[in-house]
């Protein structure tokens, strides 16, 4: 066996181990994560091919088949078309509509939203009482939207509190479900 082949095998084994550990470290299973990634890519393809509306100020957040749409559309017709398109992606079980109809996000607000997003992600990762991998975040117009699954009501309240206390946050909207009892 050549050195190059050995390195390739080791790299593939390392990637497999990394993915397996990631699946074990998170309460999500690997199959659901791949389904979400596939649905996300499929939906982005549908939106990209639809030239009737500008979807540039829309964020797509997907977790376990629950699709949350945030941002702005310029018209009610555009918002309606976006929601229709959202249902076209395989694996989408629920569409959560948090779209505002109006002007798009300005550059300054976009920078502020990105800052809020990064601060909150760091807080969730650093908090021992929250499993950060179980939460997806979207920030639009200084409103934080949370999507995911909490292990308990206390964890959910902690995640909301972490979001609420980030400087600049005007409102927190939670679409986080409580995880049912784990079956052994």
TrEMBL record:
Gene3D superfamilies given in the database record: 3.40.1520.20
InterPro entries: BON_dom, Lipoprotein_DolP
Keyword vocabulary terms for this entry: Signal
Residues of the BON domain: 35-103, 112-180
Annotated signal peptide: 1-25
Pfam families the record matches: BON (PF04972)
Protein name per the record: BON domain-containing protein
Species of origin: Hyphococcus aureus
């Amino acid at each position: 066996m050549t050195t190059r082949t050995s390195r390739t095998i080791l790299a593939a084994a390392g990637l497999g181990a990394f993915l397996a550990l990631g699946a074990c470290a998170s309460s999500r299973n690997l199959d659901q994560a791949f389904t979400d990634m596939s649905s996300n890519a499929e939906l982005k393809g549908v939106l990209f091919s639809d030239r009737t509306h500008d979807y540039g100020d829309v964020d797509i957040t997907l977790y376990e088949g629950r699709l949350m749409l945030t941002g702005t559309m310029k018209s009610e017709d555009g918002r309606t078309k976006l929601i229709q398109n959202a249902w076209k992606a395989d694996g989408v079980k629920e569409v959560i509509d948090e779209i505002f109809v109006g002007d798009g996000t300005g550059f300054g607000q976009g920078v502020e939203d990105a800052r809020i997003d990064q601060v909150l992600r760091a807080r969730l990762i650093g908090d021992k009482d929250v499993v950060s991998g179980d939460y997806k975040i979207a920030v639009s117009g200084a409103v934080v939207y949370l999507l995911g699954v909490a292990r308990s009501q206390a964890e959910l309240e902690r995640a909301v509190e972490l979001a609420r206390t980030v400087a600049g946050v005007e409102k927190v909207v939670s679409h986080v479900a409580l995880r049912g009892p784990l079956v052994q």
